[in-house]
Amino acid sequence: TSVIATALLLAGLSGAAQADCDDGEMVIKFSHVTNTDKHPKGIAASLLQKRVNEEMNGVACMEVFPNSVLYDDDKVLEAMLNGDVQMAAPSLSKFETFTKKYRIFDLPFMFKNIDSVDAFQNSEAGQSMLNSMNKRGLQGLGFWHNGMKQISANKPLELPGDAAGLKFRVQPSDVLVAQFDALKASPQKMAFSEVYGALQTGVVDGQENTWSNVYGQKFFEVQDGTTESNHGVLDYLVVTGSDWWEGLDAPVRDQLATILKEVTETRNAESTRVNEEAKAAIIAAGGVVRELTDEQRAAWVEVLKPVWEQFEGDVGADMIEAAQSFN
Ligand code: LMR
After folding, report:
1. DSSP 22
2. How far does the signal peptide extend, from start to end residue (predicted)?
3. What pTM does this model have?
4. Is 71 close to ligand 1, i.e. is its CB under 6 Å away?
């Protein structure tokens, strides 16, 4: 057990799922920001850890640090380049200082549902994006699904005009800033771990996220309600350092890649169900969920879709066309 892991355990931080690594095993630290058992990413990371530690026993040992106990997403990529952590799965909105190509995933109403996202990611165009940050020292290993984003605030949101004048937390993505600018709202970039407190104290009025994050972080407790807008996607890149990855012995790298591929397929197939369960749990806990009529939804599309034009140069018209072909 590492010093950090011991310190976390002594500090009584819950949810950390470190393994006891044996002498001689290569330690793979995996840092993320969500819970471990009711979240598409958390469950996937836990399964990855379990399989690596069973099947690569004696060779490799994975320690998962969930719930932002080790790093927030704004620090984790830097830590990876410094060799302090070997794997992470930040949302695709968090790579903007490394590549502008991932902005396509943040464009509102780009994808109809997670199946379209899946098909695009698995296409040649999507797979080429795994290597788009190699020059910056990062290697994408695969895409993990969370799901479609919903929008919430401290007042009902039914038409886009309802968001005007409100402050919204956004992930650190200029596309998401532009999205809330289009709504005449005030976007504020903020780390995931700070959102609940910011909503509670009124630092921001609203936020956008998936059902599993709204449930896992209890945002519904400090919001008027959540509108089922499905207006965007929140997915992850499982990422590692290029040097670290290339430095592995080929058999070790191959086994790790195979386990990761299998975990990715298994858990991506379950991500929608995990989010549906979170939505049901929100309702069961007294949270309000609002559905949009077709007319209301059309009004959101009309206001938000023009945001695409601002970023077409970054993501490429060909990539937009490829993405659209899977809807
Ligand atoms: C967020 O910052 O809202 C999400 O990216 C958190 C996560 O990892 O799901």
Report:
1. P
2. 1-19
3. 0.94
4. no
